[in-house]
Design a protein that fits this description.
Shape: elongated
Oligomer: single chain
Organism: Streptococcus hominis
Structural class: alpha+beta
Protein name: DUF2969 domain-containing protein
Helix content: 10-25%
Number of strands: 5
Strand content: over 45%
Largest sheet: 5 strands, antiparallel
Distance between the termini: 24 Å
Number of helices: 1
Length: 76
Amino acid sequence: MSKKDKKIEIQLADSQVKVGSEQYEGYALSIGKKVIGQIAELDGQFAIIKNENIDSFYKKLENAVEKLIETYNLGK
């Protein structure tokens, strides 16, 4: 028997990201209706935000998105 491939919708939307007590321009990454992470653009780099704190920095947005998806898949 073969499995049917499920189509998963991943969406990257512009968003206001809260880091500590400040708001920054950034992105919200969603899979389906669930937001799996936030990315803020700080000083020309992209920071993954967890619990309003900076978790890690990346030079490219694509790398930050890949890391969020990887972390989400490993946590399942």
